[in-house]
Structures are given as C-alpha cells and as structure tokens.
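Hi V.,

You were right to ask for the full record rather than a summary. Here it is.
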Amino acid sequence: MTHEVPLPPRTGLPTSEERLRAVLLYAQSDAAAPPGALPGVDRCAMITGMAALALNCFSAAPSLLDLERIDVLVPDLGEPTGPGADAPLPAACAYTSAHLVRTRVLPEPEEITGLPVAPVPRALADAVAQLPDTEHVRRLLVEAVRGGHCEPQPVVRELTRARLLALPHVADAVESLLAEGRALTEGLLYEMVFGHGLPDPCWNVELRVPGGPHLGAVDAYWPDQAVAVEIDAGTPRTGAEAAWDAYTRKREALEQLGITVIHVTAEKLHESLAQQAAVVRTALMAACEMEPAEYVAVLPR
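Predicted structure:
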C-alpha cells in the first residue's frame, strides 16, 4: 500500500532524514492505523526494504536520495480504511512515496542515526520482494554476508517466510548467498585450527569404506584420531527436516565405525572460535582412550 506523504514546508529539496522521518510519522499516525485500534496498542513502525539497506551502507542499494519510495514495516492490525488513508493531500506540498509493509510479527528494530530500522535479514526480504532481476538480488544477498551484516541462515528464513524461494531468480541468488557464507565459514574453520594450535587435518575430503559405499563428505578429518568436523551450511531447496535426516544418517554411519563427528555452524564459529577449538581438542584427546575406529579411505572431495 503506497501513499504520498507531505513533508514540512521548507525551501529546496527535502533531506534524506526529513523523508525518513516523514514516512515514519505518517505510518505511526492515525491515518495509517486501522479503524477501531485500541489506545495504547503498540503501533511501532520501522524503515525496511531498500531504504534500510541504504542506511546499512549497502553498495548494491541506491542512495536514499535516489529512492522513489520508502518502505515502512508496520503491524498488521487490519486494513486501514479511515479517512486519512485515501484523503487528498494539498497539491502545494512536497511529497515522498511511502509503502506500508504490514506484518503480524514485528522484529526488534535496530537504531541507525536515531531511526528505527528493520534487521538486515527482514529488510533484504522486503527489498527482494520488489526485484525481478536475478543479478541485483544476488549482489544484495552476497553483500549481506560478505560485508558482515548477517549470516546466511537468517536471510534464508526470512525469504522462506515471505514465500520468495518459490521464485526461480530468488532461489538462484540464494545459491550464491550460501556459497559465499560457506566460503567465509570455511575461513573461520581454518582460523580455528591454525590459530588455536590444533593438528593439521585433511581438509574437504570424502570418507569411504574400502571396497564399500561412500560415507559422505566432511570439512576436516583427523585420521589418526578418527575425528571429523562438518559445517552446517544449509540449503535453500531442501526442507530443513530432510536435510537434518540426511545429516543424521551420515553421522550414525560414521559413528558406527568409531568416528567422532563434530557438527559446527557459522554462528558457533563467529561467537567463539576458542570454544569450538576446545571442543575439537577434547575429541582429539579422548580418541586416545577409545577403541580404535574402523579404517576408512580418505579421498579428495
């Protein structure tokens, strides 16, 4: 739902801050509230979409001055039909275009330059919903991870919630997002091993029973101790339940052979490399007190 928002009278063009504050005031006004809304009901509004990405300094997002409209995330309390929603505005006023994005569950806003702004994963989903261009979507998603704004999984969750992964150009762009996230996570795994004095493992290998079936790929493997580390990167096209079932089957097959499997995520590595290194070190030390594992062939992935 898009409305033209009057700005305070002034000489010259409105600044970006004036435009943002104008649409927020409009979204929080009675004109944007549903009829019959009870006093005291939280009607928090926050900047989202491309404007939120611009505030987070995304190079792939237009500047605030170049945006033709500003998306504002508001509670979904019912369709606004009050007189203010469609009332004509004075032609002499300067306008900016406000697009109200309604949601039943508001995220916790972040504060940027004193303004409430939707978290990057939600802002990305609201921006992507308006983009038909695969390359533009890909640039935004990759920059979110490469620029350190967020992890891939929260973005995938928001895109899934918005039912955008059914769109081929979005699903294709998410593949690039996950590849970028995986590359950065692998870098953290290397940093964990070398920075915390762990023995050098075999990197990115396939495990196989000699003369038997493939057991699957792992990201790091210490053959002398039979300890494996696997990164959970997630996939956009596979349901979470199916992906977890496949991981569980592989883990059970490896553990039946006496191999210890440590499951790590990007979030765990970002939160504390030292803690994850301690988990691996403990597993390597404990291997000396366990029954020897079955021999498996280690092949390059």
